[in-house]
TrEMBL record:
GO-annotated biological processes: amino acid transport
Entry's family note: Belongs to the leucine-binding protein family.
Keyword Transport: yes
Name of the protein this chain belongs to: Branched chain amino acid abc transporter, amino acid-binding protein
Leucine-binding protein domain span: 33-377
Keywords: Amino-acid transport, Signal, Transport
PROSITE patterns linked to this entry: PROKAR_LIPOPROTEIN
TM regions (residue ranges): none
UniProt signal peptide: 1-21
Pfam family membership, one: Peripla_BP_6
């Protein structure tokens, strides 16, 4: 009897260890819910992005659950705050996978935090889909595909090229200056791509200056950039610093066009910089709410009803990312993380808010971009750019 009890205890211990490995839920396919993890910047320096993306995901999950869920089960979205820090992002991914037993991860929002979480997700063989991480190294590095990494947004080389082409062909300028965030993988990658693409268009970068996240005074570097007499200044960075840079640039008498990226997209941009300062600024983005697409209009109305505010691009991309993952789980007909990963890789011609999306061999979307112009504090559609 004692031996039998010991054997039973050993079996129980083995079962508990097995249940703690990877992202498989405790009762697997028999679970009453499908647990999806959301690892986002709910607080910290880029909290606006994380909160917006998470809100978009929550709305998609709410709609999916109201329509019956996935595979006859409801979706349980478990949100973890990475505090806008890479180390915390890795911790959040570990918790979601090992303690909450999620079958897949959505997020984070910023590229640096995605790269930190991805190392954890890859070790546990759980798919990670970032709605907004644009750094190319997220999905492929040194020519090697990261098989558990996916995204629902275009990558830096595409939007860096979009803005370089826009400067050369639409604004018809030959010279540019760059002011970038040297503490951000996102900003450094975009800087490199813009400079290379602008040169291919016959343009020349006359000056480059760098700042750090959370800097407050940018006037010294802006004075140097102004002295270069460049026709445009490219600022590939996030809204928190960009809004202050734009405001201080105009205070210094810089009237030339200021160019940016999707990191500019936040209601706080106008709130901090001021509407007048943002005139004659342009940035690449994933969609424009100015169009007549009924899907977009419905989303905007539903989002405003749910959260009492206009959605930004991060909310839209979060919604798209959730649609991608839900679609993959349906096609996989399974909650096994590896099967979900395989289904994600086969995403083709999926209708999402930002258009029709297919993933290429690098797990990156093939989709269009738009250029947004700021006029009197409002975003206006300027141009659409196809891949």
């Amino acid at each position: 009897m004692k031996q039998w009890l010991c054997g039973l205890v050993a079996i129980s211990l083995l079962a508990s260890v097995a249940a703690g490995c990877g992202g498989k839920q405790e009762s697997g396919q028999d679970a009453k819910e499908i647990r999806i993890g959301a690892n986002f910047e709910m607080t910290g320096g880029v909290a606006q992005y994380g909160q917006s993306a998470a809100n978009g995901i929550k709305l998609a999950v709410k709609e999916a659950n109201a329509a019956g869920g996935i595979l006859g089960k409801q979706i349980a979205l478990i949100v973890a705050d990475n505090k806008s820090e890479p180390a915390e992002s890795a911790n959040a991914a570990t918790k979601l996978i090992t303690q909450d037993k999620v079958v897949a991860l959505l997020g984070p929002a910023s590229s640096s935090n995605v790269l930190a979480a991805l190392s954890v997700a890859s070790d546990y063989k759980v798919p990670l889909l970032t709605p907004t991480g644009t750094n190319p190294r997220i999905t492929i590095e040194n020519g090697k595909l990261k098989e558990f990494a996916f995204r629902s947004c275009f990558i830096d080389p595409f939007q860096g090229t979009v803005m370089a082409n826009f400067a050369a062909k639409e604004l018809m300028v030959k010279t540019a200056a760059i002011y970038y965030d040297s503490s951000s993988d996102y900003s450094k990658s975009l800087t490199q791509v813009f400079e290379e693409s602008f040169a291919k268009n016959g343009g020349k970068v006359l000056a480059k200056e760098a700042f750090l996240q959370k800097d407050q005074d940018f006037k010294s570097a802006l004075t140097k950039l102004k002295a270069s007499n460049a026709e445009v200044i490219y600022i590939p960075a996030y809204y928190e610093e960009v809004s202050k840079i734009v405001k201080q640039a105009r205070e210094l008498g810089i009237t030339s066009p200021l160019l940016g990226t999707d990191g500019w997209d936040s209601p706080k941009l106008t709130e901090i910089a001021g509407a007048a300062a943002l005139n004659n600024t342009f940035f690449s983005n994933h969609y424009s709410s100015q169009g007549q697409d009924p899907r977009v209009q419905k989303f905007v109305a539903d989002y405003k009803q749910e959260y009492g505010q206009e959605p930004d691009t991060f909310a839209v991309l979060g919604y798209d990312g959730a649609l991608m993952l839900i679609d993959a789980i349906k096609r996989a007909n399974s909650t096994e993380p590896v099967k979900i990963k395989e289904a994600l890789a086969q995403t083709r011609d999926l209708q999402v808010l930002t258009g029709v999306l297919s993933l290429d061999q690098n797990h990156d979307p093939v989709k269009s971009a738009v250029v947004v112009e700021m006029k009197d504090g409002k975003q206006t559609f300027k141009a659409k750019v196809n891949p």
